[in-house]
Amino acid sequence: MASTSSSSFLLSTSITGSKFSAGTPLAPPSSVSFRQQRSFSVSAAYSTAERTTTSSNIASQSSLYEVLGLQAGATTHEIKSAYRRLARILHPDVARFQQNSSAEDFIRVQSAYATLSDPEKRAKYDRTLFGNIFGRSVGVSSAGTRSHYTTCRNWETDQCW
Amino acid sequence: MAEQAYTVASDSETTGEEKTSPAFPEIAIGIDIGTSQCSVAVWNGSQVELLRNTRNRKLMRSYVTFKDEVPAGGVSDELAHEHDMLSGAAIFNMKRLIGRVDTDPVVHASKNLPFLVQTLDIGVRPFIAALVNNMWRSTTPEEVLAIFLVELRAMAEVKLRRPVRNVVLTIPVSFSRFQLTRIERACAMAGLHVLRLMPEPTAVALLYAQQQQQSAQENMGSGSEKIALIFNMGAGYCDVAITATAGGVSQIKALAGSTVGGEDLLQNLMRHLLPNMKDLFSHHGIEEIKKMGMLRVATQDAIHKLSSEMAVPVDVDLGNGTKISKFLERAEFEEVNKEVFQKCETLIKRCLCDAKLEAEDVHDVIIVGGCSYIPKVRNIVMSICKREELYSGMNPLEAAVRGAALEGAVASGISDPFGSLDLLTIQATPLSIGIQADGSNFVPIIHQNTTTPVRKEQNFTTVHDNQAEALIFVYEGDEKTVEDNHLLGYFKITGIPPVPKGVPEINVCMDIDASNVLRVFAGVIIPGAKCPPPFMEVRMPTVDDGHAWSAQTLHKTYGSTLDLVTVKKKGQH
């Protein structure tokens, strides 16, 4: 369980994510404590020594929405809720009570949230995302999807190249 | 018995893995070391409780008196403070002095305290000493703090009837990482293990998060996001934080801090009452120290009274014909301290701006700290935040230590059946961290107000042809040039291939983990190389005292030979 790959972890969160995204208020029942949710064992396959390879792991998730377990059209409220829910599971302060936890997962969620919670950055990101996966259904990742990091170009570079 | 009810939740879900945390974890206590006062709190199983000393006081004066052989702190003996202050044997304000070199303006401003603070302006630690039996007994802020912490620890151990080792301490936002290491060292000297150093307003934010969560549960509310602005001004420091709270998660949006506080108000007013103060007190003889102490006590008293009265009489006889007899008005006090209040305004505005929020977006405005009783301070905060009322659910003098105790319980892995500890603080960096490049410019890699844990990297390149080595100077701060920021350390990377300048790709990566430990990785990237030179991984800060010196000496010795320049961002990923 502890060695579950990061992709299967994200699969499970996207299931809960879609359950929550139907306008459900974010506050979980008070009886659910953080540490009871620690069965969410997450991968620590990439240690600091392998840090140069982490970008490819991040890139294996085809969109920032999937990192948060959301559909591409999610509302600001849904994005905030999803971020907070994941923070309560993945933040190292919570996750360190389980073994094999890693800050990487939280950092990935954090960086997705940083982009999607900023209207300007999100709009820019959405343009690149929809541009790249044109003709493909949104929010469904296929294993062979190219990383958006390598395919992402903004308007200026498109003009230059 | 009480402890058994609050152990970590059952391990049954995890599949047979051994847990590292013990079955009965020790609950870390929260300590708020103030410039002037200090308090200790702990999660008692159902709520946060402040510990009282033998005199039944929750707030204790932060000072240490050096007498004969054994120094004594203000934990047990608070009444002696004013007497000791007049004799030059009491050292206080250590939170203002800790981790500062003798070129620091804050150290210079401390020279008219009633003990010895001597500076030589060469970038080493100042000479601080107490007068014991007519002789200067040298000490350091770390030592004073450690003596004080030993007393606090002893008091807590008696009250809790158990050994105390783990602590969560609150610190000012503006503390550099070098200053944090000094606090950790003082704790280590006192036999305490620092679980977390928490910026004061973020501790208040955690308490607020808990209060919001509880009221959301009582009202069966949805627990929607609430934004709070926290303004904390004590004797030594002023901090502002903006937090977004929902469901027990406190996310720090922005932090701002500065070294202004009640001590500045006090000194400005002392200077106003006695304009030739500096000349009168320059010798630090027994008589001068006594006069300084008397003036200090009288001025402090006047400031306290001016919080409730519009004018107070100040009568103090300093001897030798120096006598102050004056009717001091509140408006006069405010005028004398105009600059301090302006600084407070700037901090709040900057924090709102950094959080990308308008005053109208803030739901609650919280004001804490000893200066929160000053009418002018309250007015400033209310007028910038455009409201008539301040949040009233907290004791301004206890909020920070209560938050620290909550963090202590959460970080010790304690859970509460009623969900009172289902809390999480998502911290942000108070200051930017970066390296020296492009001459003496500061190039931030992790920017201010970045959520932690975080990892960021940036590429640099050489400035000279065939440059084989490069020096990585790590700084912290928000000024453009490195001289104006805090040096955290430096190290050399080697093995850069002999190629023209601008060709080698030197990667500098910075990582802050959840415990706020900063690590810097740096090395040269050689594509296709079979065994590339290894990356250096260095835990920061590395510098010890006299660091202002070492940077100058390095610059003198090496010039620009080991310099770096930034690479234009292109194809970072």
Q: How many whole angstroms does the radius of gyration of chain A measure?
A: 16 Å
What is the helix fraction of residues of chain B, given as a range?
25-40%
- Silhouette of chain B: globular
Give a short account of the largest sheet of chain B.
Answer: 6 strands, mixed
Number of distinct helices of chain A: 9
InterPro entries (chain A): Diphthamide-biosynth_chaperone (IPR052276), DnaJ_domain (IPR001623), DnaJ_domain_CS (IPR018253), J_dom_sf (IPR036869)
Domain J (chain A): 63-129
GO cellular component, one term (chain A): chloroplast
Protein name (chain A): Chaperone protein dnaJ 11, chloroplastic-like
Describe this structure in words.
The complex is a heterodimer of chains A (161) and B (573). Chain A has 161 residues and is mainly alpha-helical. In chain A, 51% of the residues lie in helices and 0% in strands. Chain A has a domain at 62-130: Helix Hairpins, CATH 1.10.287. Chain B has 573 residues and is α+β, with helices and mostly antiparallel strands. Among the domains of chain B are: 28-195, ATPase, nucleotide binding domain (Nucleotidyltransferase, domain 5); 431-566, Substrate Binding Domain Of DNAk, Chain A, domain 1, CATH 2.60.34.10. Chain B is built from 14 helices and 28 strands. In chain B, strands 1, 2, 3, 4, 11 and 12 form a 6-stranded mixed sheet that branches. In chain B, strand 25 and strand 26 form a beta hairpin. In chain B, helix 1 packs across helix 9 (286-306), helix 6 packs across helix 13 (399-411) and helix 11 (338-354) packs parallel to helix 12 (375-384). The longest helix of chain B is centred in the middle third of the chain and has 21 residues, at 286-306. Chain B is globular, with a radius of gyration of 25 Å. Chain B starts with 28 loop residues before the first strand and ends in a 7-residue tail after the last strand. At the A-B interface, helix 4, helix 5 and helix 6 of A face strand 19 of B.
